[in-house]
Write a structure and sequence with these properties.
Shape: elongated
Helix content: 40-55%
Largest sheet: none
Radius of gyration: 26 Å
Number of helices: 2
Strand content: under 5%
């Protein structure tokens, strides 16, 4: 039973898992940044004109 005010000390396994989660998070963020398309490179979409055929 814990006394109020005492913080549980994480075990080595918990510390290793936390470090692995942080490393995975960093890898995902780095990959997302590498895959990001800069706004300047985005071209304007060409409108789909198929709907006009049905308007006649």
């Amino acid at each position: 039973m814990q006394v109020h005010g005492d913080d549980p000390v994480p075990s080595r396994g918990e510390q290793a898992e936390a470090a692995e989660r942080e490393a995975a998070k960093r890898r995902l963020l780095e990959q997302a940044e590498a895959d990001r398309v800069p706004v300047d490179d985005i071209t304007r979409a060409v409108p789909d004109r198929r709907w006009r055929r049905d308007q006649r």
